[in-house]
Sequence to fold (392 residues):
Amino acid sequence: METRRKAPCGQAASVGVPVGCVRIAKAALRYCTCVVLLSENVRKYIYMMKKISRRSFLQVCGITAATAALTACGGTAAQEMQSIQVFAMDTVMDLTAYGENAAAALTDASREINRLERLLSRTIDTSEISQINAGGAVTVSEETASLLAQAQTYTAATDGAFDVTIAPLVSLWGITTDSPYVPTQQEIDALLPLVGSEHLHLSGDTATLDDGCAIDLGGIAKGYASDRVAAIFARHGITSGTISLGGNVYVCGSKPNGQPWVVAIQNPRSDGYAVTVALMDSFAVTSGGYQRYYTAPDGTVYQHILDPKTGYPVESDLLSVSILCDNGTMADAYSTALYVMGSAGAQAFWRTHGGFEMILITTAGQVLYTPGLSEKITPTEGSGYEYVSIHP
Ligand code: AMP
Ligand code: MG
Fold:
């Protein structure tokens, strides 16, 4: 049995990589030896090092170095750039900020990410999500109640494609665990009735689940954390910075030289990126089957996003979905949901709902992008993909 994280934890799914700097970044891998880690993350960092391959780790560090090399690409504030790497929410996170308050902003951001992990992780026994999953009527913080209410809104909007009550099936399959398992149809059928947002009852600050049900915020928590970090950056007056929380990217303001940031969308089929997008003040969240998956002994690949209607890992005509908008929580929920919907469903959803830009990379070898991105994207030469604007 083999479980793999190609880009560890989706880290490279969409990253703030200044394209012109890639060569410089590679030469700057020495940054790997001096990444800044907060002491409270050291334990998790050692755990992470055990879990991911050295090659993957270097990819992660390469990203850090790429960000660190921004100054060479046109910034003039080298001395003001600060970066930090955090391991939380089962993923490597890179944060960079410029300006006189950069260090304070990054410290606060790191604390906030750790606080949110303690609040929202279902693998931490004391988290509010674990308490809800343990059963009974649970008094939760206003913050958790509000995030759960948002999750239910996204469930309704996506006709159930995004659903945090998918947890029992996520546990059954265990795709992202050390012991993944291919269940029988009978086992899946037994759990499917437990999935559905009607099983989660919210009333003020009280959350209650129906018997046997559970919730998993893995599809939305990093997006929410990115919103919180963006707010912290704003509070500290940061006008230039990037964060990459797994596949969840936020670019704050512009590069120090006033140019837009360039976010690279991972090529799901190989190393490198399929397309880049010039962005300012935007979230860019990618979901894909290539990020975390399990290859069964018979060679079948099962990836980590499940279809709540069937209880099976999604078999989509999409390799990845990237959502770009000004709301990290929504971008995270939608990237998961639209991956479940497949290419036609995702396009129909965008036409109906709007309010975001998107890039779909399909199994047929196309990079489909919403027309609002036409001036912002740069195809990767020689990638073999066909780049097509989605019809409004
Ligand atoms: P993401 O990487 O944001 O697309 O989230 C994927 C994670 O969300 C998985 O690893 C599961 O923990 C959880 N998940 C899987 N399928 C769904 C789904 N259909 N709706 C909500 N969360 C899901
Ligand atoms: Mg998501």
